[in-house]
Structure formats: C-alpha cells, structure tokens
Amino acid sequence: MDFDGYSIGGVANDGESKEDMYKAIDYSVPYLPLDKVRYLMGVGEPVDIVEGIERGIDIFDCVLPTRIARHGQAFTYHGKINLHNQKYKEDFTCLEEGCTCYTCKNYTKSYIRHLIMSDEVLGGRLLSIHNIHFLIHLTEQSRLAIQEDRYQTFKETFLASYQPSKNK
Q: Residue 155 falls within a domain, yes or no?
C-alpha cells in the first residue's frame, strides 16, 4: 500500500536492551521505502534519537521530555540534570549555556528548582519547554550535519559529550 509514511513500534519496550532496540530498527528499515517517512514510535532519549537517525529514521515521538520535566529533570548537551539536587538551590545560571529557549532566556536553575520543590506546575512547564526545544535543536543539528555530509562526526561528538547514565 502506498502510505505517506511507515512506523516502527514496539522496539522501545521496558526491559529490552538498547542493542535489541537498535537491532529491531536495523532489521526493519531496509524493508521500508526510501522515499517515505520512517517514524519510530515511543523513542525520546537523545542518544536513541541520534542512533535512530543514523539508522534511517526520520521522525520520533515520545512522552519522555515532558514526563522527566514534571519530575524535575532537564536535557543538556552533557546529559540529564536533576533539579531536585541540592547543588542547584543557589545556581543562578540557565539550564544550558547558549540555549535559546524561553526557559533558558528567562529563568535560572535555582528558580526552577524552587518551583519543582514547591510542586508548582510552572516548574514542569518550564522544563518541558526546554526539553522539547533541546530535542528540536538536536534534530535540526542532525539534519544540518547530514546535509553537510558530517553526520558520523556530529554523532560521535554528541555522544562523547552526552552522558545519559549520569543523572546530575
């Protein structure tokens, strides 16, 4: 059938390793038309997005950026940070130096931490804005790297800087 695009789902289930997820993508993508959108369902970790792009995935969706925001976490190019941590109580810098999102332009880690610790909904909203902006920026950078034929270098640089296992 001539669909506008094709999706791959069920590869990011809890309990499966990332290697298994990547194998499922590697197995599926060759069977999808080259001229149609390839959509990976339920994947939102930055590392998985850059790995998915390398494997031929075009679009992603996931609740992760807003879910972790509601729990006080933010994506940065050096991994996730957890604003529940005491060290952010008097940190008057933005979430990510150089970020152009509304949150980073207008709020400090300290203030967002205060909101999160006070169970104020605004804290989760501000972190959601940042996290979604982060992922959009990451995919824009990925697109540019592909256009400039330097995606592998971009990916390696990103992965060397991003440390998802260290929840700071």
A: no
Structure tokens at 1: 């059938």
Tokens of 29: 């993508």
What are the beta bridge partners of residue 61? 41
Place of tokens 């001539």: 2
Query: 116, 110 in Cβ contact below 8 A?
Result: no
Residue 165 in any domain: the answer is no
Average pLDDT over residues 5-14: 82
Torsion, Cα 29 132 73 22, to 10 degrees, reads 0
State the DSSP H helix or E strand holding residue 75, giving kind and residue range, or none if neither.
strand 73-76
Any idea of the CA torsion for 8, 10, 16, 19, to the nearest 10 degrees?
-10
CA dist., res. 37 & res. 25, Å (int):
14
**Amino acid 168: pLDDT:** 56
59 beta partners: 39
Q: What is the pTM of this model?
A: 0.92
Read off φ and ψ for residue 8, nearest 5 degrees. Answer: -120, 125
Question: Which two tokens mark 17?
Answer: 């390793």
Please provide the DSSP assignment of 27-88 as one string: HHGGGS-TTSEEEEET---HHHHHHHHHTT--EEE-SHHHHHHHTTEEEEBTEEEETTSGGG
Going by the DSSP 8-state scheme, the letter that residue 41 receives in this structure is E
* Domain range enclosing 92: 65-131
